[in-house]
Amino acid sequence: MSRTERQRFIVGITGASGAIYGVRLVEALLHAGYGVHLVVSDAGWRVLKEELGWDVTRRQLAIEKAFGEQAAYIEYHPIQDIGASIASGSFRVRGMIIMPCSMGTLSSIAHGSSDNLMSRAADVMMKEGRPLVIVPRETPMHAIHLENMLKLANMGVRMVPAMPAFYYHPQTLDDIVNFLVGKVLDCLDVEHQLFTRWGESDELPKRNDE
Ligand SMILES: Cc1cc2nc3c(=O)[nH]c(=O)nc-3n(C[C@H](O)[C@H](O)[C@H](O)COP(=O)(O)O)c2cc1C
C-alpha cells in the first residue's frame, strides 16, 4: 500500500524531555497501518540528539535510519514549511498528536499563534473539529502552564500528561513508554497491544483482605 493510500495522523515532536515517547508513537502508528506526517521542532531535534543519541545533521536521513523500511510511510515536514499539506484544513488526516509537548508549543497553540507548521497544524485540527492529543511534559508546572492546558481542554483537546502509572507493575523503561503511547492511541481509537488492560490480565488483582 502506498503512503497516500493509508489513513494518516500528524505527529509533532517538540523540545520537551521524552523524545522516546514521540518515536515510539510513530512506530506504533506505522505498525497499526497508518501513515505519519511528522513535524519536529528545532528544539525537538536537539532533544532527539541529547536523549536518544540521534545524528541530526541530516534530518531526513536520521528518520530513515530510525524507522528503516517503514520510513516510506512517513512524510517529514520542516517546521518552517507553513505551505505544507498539513497546514491546510482541506488536507484530510485522522488527527494530530504532539508527544512530547513543550510548554512553549503548548502556549503557542493555546494562544492561536500558528507561528510555525506545528502550531498551525494543531490550530487546523481545532478549527476543523478533528482530534488533537497533547502530551505535555514539564515539572513542576506554574499557573500559566496550567491555564494553557485548561484553555485547550475546554476546546476539546485531549491532555495526556507524561505521567507513568505503576498499578500494572512496569519492569522496564519500555513498559513505561508503551503505557503512555497506548493511552494516546486509546484517545484516537487506534487498536494496540502496548499494555495489558486492568481487569484483562490472567492474574486477578489482589484484594485488600488477602
Ligand atoms: C534536554 C532538554 C530537555 C528539555 N525538557 C523540557 C521539558 O520537559 N519541557 C519543556 O517545556 N521544555 C523543555 N526543554 C526546553 C525546550 O526545549 C525549549 O523551551 C524550547 O524553546 C521549546 O521549543 P519548541 O516548543 O519549539 O520545541 C528542554 C530542553 C532541552 C535541551
TrEMBL record:
<feature type="binding site">
    <location>
        <begin position="102"/>
        <end position="105"/>
    </location>
    <ligand>
        <name>FMN</name>
    </ligand>
</feature>
<feature type="binding site">
    <location>
        <position position="137"/>
    </location>
    <ligand>
        <name>FMN</name>
    </ligand>
</feature>
<feature type="binding site">
    <location>
        <begin position="15"/>
        <end position="17"/>
    </location>
    <ligand>
        <name>FMN</name>
    </ligand>
</feature>
<dbReference type="InterPro" id="IPR036551">
    <property type="entry name" value="Flavin_trans-like"/>
</dbReference>
<dbReference type="Pfam" id="PF02441">
    <property type="entry name" value="Flavoprotein"/>
</dbReference>
<keyword id="KW-0808">Transferase</keyword>
<keyword id="KW-0285">Flavoprotein</keyword>
<comment type="function">
    <text>Flavin prenyltransferase that catalyzes the synthesis of the prenylated FMN cofactor (prenyl-FMN) for 4-hydroxy-3-polyprenylbenzoic acid decarboxylase UbiD. The prenyltransferase is metal-independent and links a dimethylallyl moiety from dimethylallyl monophosphate (DMAP) to the flavin N5 and C6 atoms of FMN.</text>
</comment>
<protein>
    <recommendedName>
        <fullName>Flavin prenyltransferase UbiX</fullName>
        <ecNumber>2.5.1.129</ecNumber>
    </recommendedName>
</protein>
<dbReference type="InterPro" id="IPR003382">
    <property type="entry name" value="Flavoprotein"/>
</dbReference>
<comment type="similarity">
    <text>Belongs to the UbiX/PAD1 family.</text>
</comment>
<feature type="binding site">
    <location>
        <position position="167"/>
    </location>
    <ligand>
        <name>dimethylallyl phosphate</name>
    </ligand>
</feature>
<keyword id="KW-0637">Prenyltransferase</keyword>
<feature type="domain" description="Flavoprotein">
    <location>
        <begin position="8"/>
        <end position="187"/>
    </location>
</feature>
<dbReference type="InterPro" id="IPR004507">
    <property type="entry name" value="UbiX-like"/>
</dbReference>
<feature type="binding site">
    <location>
        <position position="41"/>
    </location>
    <ligand>
        <name>FMN</name>
    </ligand>
</feature>
<keyword id="KW-0288">FMN</keyword>
<feature type="binding site">
    <location>
        <position position="183"/>
    </location>
    <ligand>
        <name>dimethylallyl phosphate</name>
    </ligand>
</feature>
